[in-house]
Amino acid sequence: MVVSILQRFIFPPPNSLFVTAMSVISFTSLAYTGFSEVRGRHLQYSKFWNVISPESGTRREGKQIKLSSRTGMLLLYTPAFLAGLTSFVIFPHQDLRLLLLDSALTLHFFKRIFEVLFVHKYGGSMVLDSAIPITLSYFLSTATMIYAQHLTQGVPEPPVDLMYPGVLLFLIGISGNFYHHFLLSKLRRGEGDKEYRIPKGGLFDLVLCPHYLFEIIDFIGISFISQTWYTFSFTLGTVFYLMGRSYATRRWYFSKFEDFSKDVKALIPCVF
């Protein structure tokens, strides 16, 4: 029954071992990483760039290659942006759904690069061991989303068309994410300022990570535009990862700020 309901919203699974394997790998790896965040095993960027490993009890700084945060973030997003941009050349004859998906993914990562260059102020570093898997995840997921969509060319559309609601959700998500990133940037007094402060404004009075919430809305919009099994599996994995990351972030704020309000949730107002 569940499968028959899903078939109304999603294209049939493609006859591609690669896309099927990537669907499983993307979901399980992202969900596991989110679970690891809850357990205190963090991807080492942002405020967690120099955390103590719970297994060893040490930071192992001498054994790790560190990048500046700005360089690390550019490394994360640039390959995925180029994958989206290149897809317009590789698949020049696109239907509307594939064109919208390509455009949404390219815009998503262009915004990220723009923020790295002109919005965010950085004071920390990023460990290369954390940057590499994130970079590969963004690049491979972007390329796979586009390829999986390409495989739907000529396949009958799902009975329920979510494409235009997806465009609306994507625009809401990317706008809300950018706005709250802008608010976060205002907390830093200048480049190199390493002090963290409690964010205010927007939805920050309700949840600590509204930028994650809007990123989830962004990817839900992308999955609605696409309506492929791979894109939905990646989005679901992303939800689990950002839930874990936001939970860990809220716990970190409680440990650092005695006056941090317990009424402020991690990700979803009044819920989580």
TrEMBL record:
**Its membrane topology, per UniProt?**
Multi-pass membrane protein
Top-level taxon in the UniProt lineage: Eukaryota
Which cellular compartments is it found in? Membrane
Q: Which InterPro entries match?
A: 3-oxo-5_a-steroid_4-DH_C, SRD5A/TECR
Which GO cellular component terms, listed alphabetically, does the Swiss-Prot or TrEMBL entry include? membrane
UniProt record similarity statement: Belongs to the steroid 5-alpha reductase family.
Q: Report what the protein is called.
A: 3-oxo-5-alpha-steroid 4-dehydrogenase C-terminal domain-containing protein
Name the major location.
Answer: membrane
Check the record and name the PANTHER family matching this protein.
3-OXO-5-ALPHA-STEROID 4-DEHYDROGENASE, 3-OXO-5-ALPHA-STEROID 4-DEHYDROGENASE FAMILY PROTEIN
**Lineage, please?**
Eukaryota, Viridiplantae, Streptophyta, Embryophyta, Tracheophyta
Which Pfam families does the entry mention?
Steroid_dh
Q: Which UniProt keywords apply?
A: Membrane, Transmembrane, Transmembrane helix
One GO process term, biological-process aspect: lipid metabolic process
